[in-house]
Amino acid sequence: MDNLSPTSPLLVPTQLYRCTKIPLIVCGDFNSVPTSGVYEFLANGTVPHNHADFMSHMYGKYTSDGLRHKLGLKSAYAGTGELLTNYTPSYQGEIDYIWYSAANIGVNAVLGEVDRGYLEKVVGFPNAHFRRSTSFFHALICV
Active-site residue 2, yes or no? Predict the structure, then answer.
């Protein structure tokens, strides 16, 4: 460590991409449907420079080269069909996700959907009785 100057980077970009052995869980309210560029980027590790979500705006290298990552992410709910994570009068669908590094983490179980009969009786979901933290983000993930 003594040979590092204040301007020396601790990790060069090529080293950052070699960190795929570290277990990674990414979860959140992405407000992005499964056909979006955000979902495509997380699921496939790439988004083309001309993706419709860029809406012809210019974002430097993002729109000239596209976006890429080598994290090897997989959805914890992959293969379960579209999951209802948001239910409002104007939108019912999936916008929240749990992603994990498939190379070193596995999913043992996931929580199912909230009963549709219940959803028809409330104004929206998530709500005070079913917060996002207690309803959707329950997956048993093992390293």
Answer: no
